[in-house]
Write a structure and sequence with these properties.
Elements lengths: L8 H11 L3 H8 L4 H7 L14 H22 L2 H27 L17 H11 L12 H17 L8 H15 L3 H29 L3 H8 L9 H10 L3 H7 L1 H4 L8 H26 L4 H26 L4 H4 L10
Helix pairs in contact: 1-4, 1-15, 2-3, 4-5, 4-15, 5-6, 5-7, 5-8, 5-15, 8-9, 9-12, 9-14, 9-15, 14-15
């Protein structure tokens, strides 16, 4: 795939990069005193409709609509060979939301009416939501929009049944993300995998590490985790090497310390929530640094487009986080350390 294949998508990628929020704009969002002020700060951004939002829900919807709008446009302009691995970014959001829908349905509740991936191109999670609305009482796997979605739901529910811990089906997200990433890497020539994996590996590691820590906190045995964590080494994580560590450590706190060897992250905190929060912050900073380096060189390969998407996604997460903080009247210093951008105070 030569430069000619990227002739349409590169100009659009440059437009996206030019419209990402500057640190000063993020400061303006952070210092807002109301959702309306946040919305005003987001006019002329990548998020159509954000400027007119009057509630945090409307603002978040505009942000995710804008993010997936970027993905849709890239899909329409990029060569098929480049879009194939970029599908990972859609699946990483879809699978999380599909499992949330499955969990709600398995407990007899209504599926969430608003989730980020409902704005994804040809959203399978949205199709599942609508199918359940139209067929009340149906099992989600029976009305899934495609066999792959049905398979993930069935396997996640079977995993929860085997483990015997309510809510553990959400841990199956780790396997879904791992398999999606492996599929993305395998779809590219070997020469292109290195850059693309730099864009995606921080997130993949975060998902896998989070699953291990949450499972440890819940008391799930290693033999059960074999079902979702086993497989080839990916992004520096290989379950066959970590399994003994998982069994040896008495609690999630000890496991967090041991996992530093595999991630390079200093996982700190007095509670599981704090530890996961520190992992998320470190993965976001790592992902941003990698993406900024990738887009600076303009290589004609999927990794460059992944860098554009990654920066857009990180910004979307930051804006959602900030809008929620403003809504809750949190102080800027309470939220600044959780952003993917440093030095915003």
């Amino acid at each position: 795939m030569g430069a000619a294949g990227y002739a349409k998508v590169i100009p659009y990628a440059r437009i996206v990069l030019s419209r990402l929020l500057s640190v000063d704009r993020l400061k303006e969002v952070m210092q807002s005193r109301s959702v309306e002020e946040v919305a005003a700060a987001l006019r002329d951004s990548l998020y159509p409709g954000a400027g007119e939002a009057r509630s945090v829900e409307a603002l978040e919807a505009a942000v995710w609509r804008g993010y997936f709008g970027v993905l849709s446009k890239i899909k329409s302009l990029a060569p098929e060979e480049a879009w194939r691995p970029l599908r990972f970014y859609v699946e990483a959001e879809e699978y999380k939301d599909i499992l949330l829908i499955a969990q709600a349905s398995s407990r007899g509740g209504a599926p969430p009416s608003s989730l980020p991936s409902y704005y994804a191109p040809e959203s399978r999670s949205l199709m599942l939501f609508k199918a359940l609305e139209e067929n009340p009482g149906s099992r989600p796997q029976d009305v899934a929009p495609d066999p792959a979605t049905a398979k993930i739901i069935e396997e996640a529910l079977a995993f929860e049944k085997q483990v015997g811990v309510p809510g553990s089906l959400l841990l199956y997200y780790a396997k879904a993300v791992k398999d999606s990433a492996l599929s993305a890497y395998e779809s590219m020539p070997a020469a292109e995998r290195r850059l693309f994996s730099r864009m995606t590996c921080p997130r993949v590691r975060y998902v896998l590490v989070s699953a291990m820590l949450e499972a440890k906190a819940t008391g799930i045995e290693a033999r059960h985790l074999d079902l979702i964590m086993a497989g080839p080494r990916i992004c520096g994580i290989e379950w066959s090497s970590i399994r003994g560590v998982y069994e040896r450590e008495e609690d999630y706190y000890g496991l967090a310390g041991s996992l530093r060897e595999y991630t390079g992250w200093r996982l700190e905190g007095e509670t599981l929530g704090r530890i996961l929060e520190s992992a998320k912050t470190q993965y976001k900073l790592e992902a941003r640094n990698a993406a900024e380096a990738a887009v600076a060189s303009y290589p004609m390969q999927p990794g460059f487009l992944a860098g554009v998407v990654e920066l857009t996604r990180l910004e979307a997460e930051d804006v959602v986080l900030l809008s929620g903080a403003v809504h809750l009247r949190l102080k800027p210093e309470e939220i600044a350390g959780k952003l993917s951008v440093q030095n915003v105070l």
